[in-house]
Amino acid sequence: MRIIAALIRRNLRIYVRDRAGVLLSLLSAFILLLLYLLFLGKIQVDNLEESVPGASSDDVGRYIGSWVYAGIIMITPITTGLAALQTYVDDKVSGRFKEFRVSPIRRTQLILGYQLSAVLVAIMMSTIVLIVGAVMVKTIYGEFAGWDGMAEALGLIVLISWTFGALSSFGMTFVNSTSSFTTVSTITGTLLGFLAGAYLPLGLLSKSVVNVINALPFSSSAMLLREPLAGRALDNLANGSEPARKAIATYYGHVISIGSTRIGPVWAIAGLAVLGLLFTVAGAVRIGRSIR
User: Fold this and answer.
1) Are the C-beta atoms of residues 65 and 137 closer than 8 Å to each other?
2) Which segments of the chain does DSSP mark as H helices, in order?
C-alpha cells in the first residue's frame, strides 16, 4: 500500500505542477456556469415561462440555473479525471516505463497508481466545483440545493469519478502521443455537454436521438445529479402540481427512458457500477500490457 500511495502522490504532484492547467480547468467550469446563469440561460427561462403560465420568473430562473449547475457537475469529473491520465500518456511516450520495470514496483501497483490518482483528481476537482457552484447559485437566486442534496450529489460524484476514471484509463491506452491526448481531451470536453443533455434539454431532440443519448452512461449520470441539485427548485416551480412537475422533469431529463423502458435511479447506479468494474479490469489489463 505504501508503494501505491507513493505512486498516487507522484501522479498528483505531476498533475498540480501545471498550475495554469488546473486553474483553467476550474475556471472553465465556473465561467460556463456563470454565463448560463447570467446570459445564456435566458433562452431556456423564456421558453419555460411560456410553458408554465403563472410561474414566477424567479422560480423559473432558479430552476434553469440549478439544472445547468447539475449538468456542469456531471461533466467535471469526466474531464478532470481524463486530464489526470496525461501522466500515464507522458510516461508511455517518454519511455519512462523502462525505469519502472527495473525498479521494485509491481505492475499491479503501477496500474493502481494511475487509476486511483485519476479518480482522486476527479473527486477533488468536482467537489470544488460543487461547492463554489452552490455559492454562485445561492448568491444569484437566494437558494441552493440544500445540504442533503449536496451530500447526495457528493456520493454520486464519487461513483461517476470511479466509473469514468476507469473508462478513461482504458481509453488512454490507445493514445500514443501527447498531441493525440490533447485532441481526445478537446473532443471529449466539447461533446460531453450534448451527450449528457447538459446544455439543451432532451425534450428539444427527436425521440430517436434521445434514445441513443439515453443509452449512453453520460445521460444516466446527469439524470442522477439533477434531482438532488435541481429537485428543490423544480418543486418550487411546479408549486404542488404533480402533472406539471412530471412534464418538466421528463422534458429536462430528470426522468429518462429508452423507448418505452424507463431507466430508474437504481438501474442507473447499478449500470455505472458495472461499467466501473468492467473498465477497471479492462483498463488494468491494457495498462499492464503497455508497461511490458
Assistant:
1) yes
2) 2-17, 19-35, 41-51, 57-84, 86-94, 97-101, 107-141, 147-171, 178-195, 207-214, 217-238, 242-251, 265-291
Maximum C-alpha span of the chain: 71
Q: From the CB of residue 110, how many other CB atoms can be counted at a distance below 10 Å?
A: 22
Instruction: Please provide the size of the chain in residues.
Output: 292
CA 51 to chain centre: 29
| SS3 assignment, position 258 | strand
d(CA 249, CA 264): 13
Residue pair 160/275 in contact (Cβ under 8 Å)? The answer is no
Say which amino acid occupies 231: G
Instruction: Give the pLDDT of the chain (292 residues) as one tens digit per residue.
Output: 777 888 888 888 888 887 777 777 777 777 777 777 666 666 677 677 666 666 677 778 788 888 888 888 888 888 888 888 888 888 888 777 777 766 777 777 777 888 899 999 999 989 998 998 888 888 888 787 888 989 999 999 999 999 998 888 888 888 888 888 888 887 887 777 777 767 778 777 788 888 888 888 888 998 999 999 988 888 888 877 788 788 888 888 888 888 888 888 999 999 999 999 998 888 888 877 776 6
Coil, helix or strand at residue 280: helix
Dihedrals φ, ψ of 103, to 5°? -100, 160
d(CA 258, CA 277): 23
Got the DSSP string for 124-143? HHHHHHHHHHHHHHHHHHS-
